[in-house]
Amino acid sequence: MIAYFNGRFMEKDEIRISPDDRGFLFSDSLYEVIRYYPGLLFRPEAHIRRLNHGAAHLSLSCTDFSHLIPIARDLIRQNHLEDQDVLVYIQVTRGTAPRNHPFPDPTPDSTVYMNVTCFDPAAKDRQRKTGIHAITVPDIRWARCDMKTTGLTANVLASQQAIENGAREAIFIRDGVLMEGTHSNFMAVFDNTVTTAPLSNYILGGITRETVLGLCRDMDIRVAERPVYESRIHLASELMITGTTTEITPIGKLNGRAVGNGAPGPVAKALQAAFSSKIQQLQKQHPWFSPMKKGENSLKNSEKP
Amino acid sequence: MIAYFNGRFMEKDEIRISPDDRGFLFSDSLYEVIRYYPGLLFRPEAHIRRLNHGAAHLSLSCTDFSHLIPIARDLIRQNHLEDQDVLVYIQVTRGTAPRNHPFPDPTPDSTVYMNVTCFDPAAKDRQRKTGIHAITVPDIRWARCDMKTTGLTANVLASQQAIENGAREAIFIRDGVLMEGTHSNFMAVFDNTVTTAPLSNYILGGITRETVLGLCRDMDIRVAERPVYESRIHLASELMITGTTTEITPIGKLNGRAVGNGAPGPVAKALQAAFSSKIQQLQKQHPWFSPMKKGENSLKNSEKP
Questions:
Q1: By the CB < 8 Å criterion, does A157 face chain B?
Q2: Please, are residues A181 and A209 in contact by the beta-carbon 8 Å criterion?
Q3: How confident is the model at residue B302 (pLDDT cuts 50, 70, 90)?
Q4: How far apart are CA A92 and CA A73, in angstroms?
Q5: What chain A residue is nearest to B168 in terms of C-alpha separation?
Q6: How far from A300 is each of A3, A70, A287, A305, B169, CA to CA, in Å?
Q7: Of A219, A267, A291, B20, which has the maximum CB count within 10 A?
Q8: Mean pLDDT, range A192-205, rounded to an integer
């Protein structure tokens, strides 16, 4: 598979991360996962906006990664994946320097890595139809979950704990509030109102979360961005997670207890239908993957090796 | 410089971390820094014990890294650094696997990386003599600071904040308690009692911290492992940080305010002297770096490439 690394397209197997890379040593590093539906890279500008926000906060040498969008499309094209379901993974780090905690001086160039992988949506489709089991876990993460850093040890451990308990996702609880999942946002329906943690330093501003809240408004479904308390969770008629690969997936059981009758509820189903129809509509509008001219690619001359 | 990577000694520049390494993708990874004084690798067993503790908690495929101690010595020898001051850096990760949050199945071999770097103690010596400036910052880290993971984004940012404020270290405050520095433990002297945060999930069990508390007991200096509250910090006669490269370094100013008269206090000086004398004593007892026989090295046959 061809990937992208620091200005070059190359075989992924040939990519060499230095052991002095601050992504490896310090998780001084950000990432994004963008979904590609055949013909449609889904909301790449929103992902890049979030990446730029993180890069600015971390004071990386590069804080505008919008040039990566045509490169992502190019990578899909070069790997002949135009008619596949694909995940585009982007990771940027502060770069490579002798190990020392503060920012290196002089400032190194950011490491920029992107790969594409085929994604079989069948398993996720099934989960969307039947609902998943989820558990809750204490939120032991740091207090800047709004930045999508690769400091994911807590997410890995919670995700594994879910699997070991026969569940698919773990929802983090901080101070009695269900914040978000290990790689998804979390929503609950109370009295026909879709309720989800407000944006803060404790949750990631999910792109799918934003899309879903927009769909709710279009569909006259009431939305409340306010804390979902653990003490009231038994009163929810529906629970769901949202995310790039998850889209909108109902939670049928939380900590072994059925949510409603355990089957996907009417709000989740309506949102799933609206989401699918939005994707199909966008796919029709964006037939971007017409063949490039011979020799043409997305790299500016200055970036070519 | 020759380094060690997954069972092989090789030029550091030739080491290739896969972009699928979970250390890079998830900070699913632990590290240690061990100090080598000429002739003396300082308390490597304690470092390895802590590494093993972390590896067991993360359920890595390898949870006993004691074989790395002779390899560390060998690396010093192979790089002809026996009579130098050296830092040995060890990092182990869950290994390499296609990106997915839970533990990969099948379990990959842990990635094991070790390098040595020359360390000029002159700057740190000066800081020990004059004291340093430090600042306090809110502790935004996760709740498992007892594990020495590479999830260090908060430490990097706080460390940089210290530098930008003309300071050398930032001390994390959680719930009104001064916990530890970004890469050191923290101690305060109240009424001739060396006081430091008790071991918990909120601080790293520092090897130097343990050594210093042991020295206090040997020297009949009272020790209290109890919270050091921000509200009482002005009552401390001395403040200091302890760590592998820091050893025992007095804090002359905290947040711009002089500690005592701003100069290193009697407790810090007594501990520094005792620490130096302990090192010198151990250096005499451990002349381990006699030349190896030709062709001999620390790798078991099974590990040789």
A1: yes
A2: no
A3: very low
A4: 18
A5: A102
A6: 17, 11, 23, 10, 42
A7: A267
A8: 98
Secondary structure class of A80 (helix, strand, coil):
coil
Q: Do B17 and A15 touch (CB under 8 A)?
A: no
Q: Stretch B70-95: mean pLDDT, rounded?
A: 97
Rg (C-alpha) for chain A, rounded Å, is: 20
**Phi-psi category of residue A199: left, alpha or beta, with phi > 0 → left and psi -120 to 50 → alpha:** beta
Q: Is B148 a catalytic residue?
A: yes
Which uninterrupted H or E stretch holds B248?
strand B247-254
What's the CA gap between B107 and B85, in Å, rounded? 37
Chain B: residue whose CA lies nearest to A162: B102
| pLDDT category of residue A304 using cuts at 50, 70 and 90 | very low
Read off the pLDDT of residues B27-71 as tens digits, 9 standing for 90 and up.
999 999 999 999 999 999 999 999 999 999 999 999 999 999 999
- Is A26 in a helix, a strand, or coil? helix
Q: What is the largest CA-CA distance in chain A?
A: 61
Q: Does residue B61 belong to the interface with chain A, where contact is any CB pair within 8 Å?
A: no
Which pLDDT does position B297 carry in this prediction? 61
Enter the ipTM. Answer: 0.94
Radius of gyration of chain B (CA): 20
Domains of chain B: 2-119 (3.30.470.10), 124-284 (3.20.10.10)
B101:A152 CB<8 A = yes
Contact criterion met (CB < 8 Å) for A153 and B159: no
Whether pLDDT at A299 is above 90: no
Structure tokens at A271: 């949102």
Does any CB of chain B come closer than 8 Å to the CB of residue A222?
A: no
Q: Is B45 exposed, middle or buried (0-12, 13-18, 19+ CB in 10 A)?
A: exposed
Q: Is B267 helix (H, G, I), strand (E, B) or coil?
A: helix
Q: Which residue of A lies nearest to B54 if distances are taken between CA atoms?
A: A153
Q: Is the pTM of this model over 0.90?
A: yes
Strand partners, B253: B133, B258
